[in-house]
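Researcher: Checking consistency across runs. Here is DUF2950 domain-containing protein again:
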Amino acid sequence: MKSKLLSAMMLFMVSTGVFAQQHFSTPEQATDALAKAINEQNDKEMGNLLGEDWRTFLPADGVDPEAVDRFKRDWQVNHHTVIDGDMAWLTVGEYHWQLPIPVVKRAEGWQFDMQEAKEEILNREVGRNELAAIEALHAYVDAQESYYALANQYAQKIVSSEGKKDGLYWPVKPGEAPSPLGPAFSPKEPGQGYHGYHFRILPDSKSGFAMIAWPVSYGETGVMSFMINGDDRVWQANLGETSAEEAKALAAFNPGDRWQRVAQ
């Protein structure tokens, strides 16, 4: 996984008013300066490169030193500035991970452009969340099979009632066998979701159980909604701005014409 520092910075720098201040004669000079600022954790230089309020968009828990070390290692393995006309991107590491903030050529010289980066940053976050939702649905199928082996029936709820094991998750004491599903599906803060998605168990007369997942905030944390049943096949549909309403109103697993199979 790429640098937590960089991914966090990319996810939260979505202000339309943040533009780089410093200009360079070449894009390579710009990307070298950014790498140096990250390696040294130089706040002042980061502000010069990416705008005064760049730290406003970092998460409250700050920068992970291990993430900086990973970036240093990736940089040493490989780094290259890819130029395409008046835009350029920094790539690092064995797999040429591309920084989503482009360097743009302007009259004054080359500079990092946060406005151009905004859509790419959002797309990457949405893509990660959607993949996480699909993986979570597959984990749900495994959990239901494990629960059936214990209770000879499928669970009708995600989180068990207090003191009971009538759902897929229940707290365990040290030394006890874990519940079929972990606590991630039930976030501590109401409405928070899991990787930008909400989940709800659905009945399915064919396979015995199903589940639907929809974005916490359509267009921001995710776009597609997903469904799965005991066949362990995922279906997807773009339910638009009414994703939450439609997902909550769905009475049973029934992918209609709007739903398409997700390639395995």
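Researcher: Does this match what you'd expect to see?
Model: One thing to look at in this run: Helices lie at 4-12, 27-40, 43-50, 65-77, 114-151, 243-249.
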